[in-house]
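hey so u asked for the seq, here:
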Amino acid sequence: MFKKILIANRGEIALRIVRTCKEMGIKTVAVYSTADRESLHVRFADEAVCIGPPASSDSYLSIPKIMAAVEITNADAVHPGYGFLAENADFAEVCAEYGIKFIGPTPDQIRKMGDKITAKDTMTKAGVPVVPGSGGLLKDLDSGLEIAKGIGYPVILKATAGGGGRGMRVVWEPEEFENQWTLASTEAKAAFGNDGIYVEKFIEEPRHIEIQIAGDQFGSVCHLSERDCSIQRRHQKLVEESPSPFMTDELRKEMGEAAKLAAEAIKYEGVGTVEFLVDKHRKFYFMEMNTRIQVEHTVTEEVIDHDLIKEQIKIAAGEKITGLDYFPAMHAIECRINAEDPFNNFRPSPGKIHGFHSPKGHGVRVDTHVYAGYSIPPHYDSMIAKLICRAQTREECITKMERALDEFIVEGVKTTIPFHQKLMRNEDFRNGNFHTGFLESWDFSE
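ran it, structure tokens below
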């Protein structure tokens, strides 16, 4: 087992990792930018190293600075959390070259799943259902038009190196294709330095359902059931839950087996997630694989009573997984609490928190790195907390979430708490009648 882990991240996920490491008897090193000097992950880690100014490119995305911190603290492993360098194959490769264990998959596995075209081709060969599409990068506009005509409109243009909804455009009819092509490729070039575009059939009113998987260094893979992440805005998740109210026992088994096939196809090592789109007829299609821990891993932890960060660390240290598939015994819902104004187009609301009270009680969990007096910097993601509730049934879970949201007090900045309060009272949500476009048709400001 590792003696000291450097956490190459910030905020709530860095603090989350610190806590598990302490319980495992592992020393921790926090890295931080000057903007995060007062963050709780810095305070509670055994050691802390400042790696630069607020800009991510000069701190959390700087491989040389992070490796320098590894060297001066004698850490023997790096946990990348999510975001930043978590799915950066070059970073994983540098760690390997210097004899530092990257807690995650191998560089080759990251590369295979990081490029969406390669990932889709790998899944097709493995027998995992994929969305009909180009099967590769579009060579030019004419070939794109021809393929779109063949699979039928609407279609969606996607950046091969994309993520977070960037470089994606829905095309409803041929006349729109050229303009949307230009917009998607330009955005992809600016965001990822790669303007490669492919086209797929656009699945209308889909559910976004993902399967949590784990694989060890000995070839064993298991799945840890599903999470429904369909409540999202501009492809950014706001609420996640497990189990999905849309799922049947048969579909859960089929999707679980498909996710295991996906992981086995690349001999996946670590904890990861296979994401699917599921249409209204419950036909599912592979979308992408996230080769890291996810924000919403806490939902799965609550329904299977298992520490996924601990599982990650044990796998990286060479321990075997149980090989058993897990199915949710309870229901859990997570609300992402962002420092944003939901009634002003979710505009970011950085600033100083004057008052902070997190809800408590049976089956209520809050993961956060903030506190009263903490100043939210404007340089990073706006998520400041995750509120997770667990209960025997979905109805009980929603009721508990309503109560917890009422108790959650954040003064000094705007947050998404009022949005979540309205969502929990929405009849369609309570009845499980929603899809990824749900928020586009619901005016929650009324």
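The first strand starts at residue 4 and ends at 7. Residues 241 and 333 are 4 Å apart (CA to CA).
lmk if thats what u needed
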